[in-house]
Give the backbone structure.
Amino acid sequence: MPSPDDRPALNGQRSSGGAAAAVSLREVSLTYGGNRRLGGVFGGTDTVDALLGIDADIAGGEFVTIVGPSGCGKSTLLRLVAGFARPTGGEVAVAGEPVTGPGPDRGVVFQQPRLFPWLNLRRNVEFGLRMTGAPAARRRSRTAELLDLVGLSESAARLPHELSGGMQQRAAIARALAPGPRILLMDEPFAALDALTRERLQEELRRIWRRTGTTILFVTHSVDEAVVLGTRIIALSRRPGRIVLDETSAPSAEEDPHAHPGFPALREKIAATVRAAAA
Ligand SMILES: Nc1ncnc2c1ncn2[C@@H]1O[C@H](COP(=O)(O)OP(=O)(O)O)[C@@H](O)[C@H]1O
Ligand SMILES: [Mg+2]
């Protein structure tokens, strides 16, 4: 058996050398409730500025972690790239095309796995392929590949409730990868897991990223997680979220990022930035 890292790219969509950024954010702002009545829920005003002037280009294959205080607009930013929301200012583009709604080129993983409870793991993962119109045999082989990729081959016939939270989240990642998205959007996917499971899944996600070449945008409020996972770390200020730091993580390139000599200093720098941004 070849080791997982020896096999060809699973998404078959590795960079074709095109010039457009995988994700381009141009002066992106979002104000909630601008044209709706919110009944004074937000202290008597009817709008909430969630993001302000977000400007960034993300290249294909980057693993970007987005960190910032609670309520600073991290989920909002992912929702804009996912196409679940539209900016009220600026432009969000994926592969050079303005985002007008969700699409199979972007997979999303949330904090809760959100699997279909009545479908076994195989069918949950396969579900992501239904919409692609792939023939049954192709769906089966691809589902098997994906379950293998996330280490769940043995559990393919189990129902979600028969699995641990970590296994469910791995299945959710496999399902999101099923249509071969160029971009994986992850919103605090490991926040509900215990520390050990979380560390194991961080390692697995790094392996999956290297193996598939998928561009990842990963939201977390854990500075440690941001430094370990991201080849690039973007920190947001408190609401309305603005980019206050955009930095490469050298430790993330190491087998054991915590052992990298630059790890403590980088973690402290990001932590200080986030603390200052939250104040
Ligand atoms: N649908 C919505 N309507 C109004 N305000 C919202 C909505 N969604 C989020 N917000 C507000 O926008 C801000 C940013 O939210 P969010 O993106 O969820 O932050 P984060 O994920 O960083 O915690 C918060 O103040 C939140 O209360
Ligand atoms: Mg959030």
User: Anything to note?
Assistant: The chain has two domains: 60-85+96-105+181-279, 116-180. The domain at 60-85+96-105+181-279 is CATH 3.40.50.300 (Rossmann fold).
